[in-house]
Amino acid sequence: MLNDYLLTVISNIGMISLIALSAYLLLISGEISFGQQAYFGISAYAGAIATTLWGWPLWLALLFGSSLAALAAGFVGLLTLRISGLYFSIATLAFAEMVRLSLFKLSYQLEIDGELIGPNGAEGFGEIRWIFDNDVSVLEYTLLIYGILLLVLFCLVLIERSRLGMIFRMLGQDPLLTRIQGLNPVRYKVTAAILAGFIAGLGGTLYAHSFTYIEPQIFNVMLGVHALAYGLIGGLGTVLGPLIGVAIDIGFLESVRVFQGYRMIVFGGLVAVMLIFMPRGILDENRVYRLKNLAQRWFRA
Fold this sequence. Notes:
Layout: H1 4-28, H2 36-52, H3 58-79, H4 86-103, E1 110-112, E2 115-117, H5 130-133, H6 138-160, H7 163-173, H8 175-180, H9 185-211, H10 221-234, H11 240-253, H12 263-277, H13 285-300
Antiparallel strand pairs: 1-2
Helix pairs in contact: 1-6, 1-9, 1-10, 1-11, 2-3, 2-4, 2-9, 3-9, 6-7, 6-9, 7-9, 10-11
């Protein structure tokens, strides 16, 4: 029987997987973003405000927070049309830090049952009680998280098998070839940014309601670096790659006692080794292709 602590770890893996998938979507389209934590944080605050202060249902708050995150990602995508590579990475990092520092100044509180509730700058945002008010158990909320994660994975698989997914990968491999094919790289770059922002936003709203307390410092640069690293470790050949990266970091390194206290050192070393020996991750495009051929031969046999 799973206890609440183990369920919390499992649910955390699911929520962080969503921000990892958002970074992965940008990686396959040729952009390295250090700012996905901004959309995670925007949605966390917006979704929590919607349920806690405005009394919205969770599904509506989830759509509201994720849509707001997608709009912000699209805005950043439009502002960075003419830059790429290192310059794009720095721009996303600067935007994320701007959002984090703005949250330190955000104060919006309403009196509920004689108590002021809502975000209050550096003191954070507590009393996000949707789970308790609706008698949702830890197991039920974990199942909700993984239901949403499976839905996102299903949609990403459909995208990867569609023309849009092929264009994303072509854009990531050779932007000039994309332009020669008569396609507008700018349009697809912004599309990838919006989709990535929405996916990160889903994780943010779920995160706020899972932990019932959020503060600006949670959405710091290290969250963005980890989100990016998960795809680099797990592999860019399939949507399952980032999930492998999350499972290695949160599921293994954080859980094994011998690594406690050294997790960041081990994780950083693992990223360095992977970049040297497997620059496209464990499940890169070649390994995924070979695994598919092996599976097809097995089924035929």
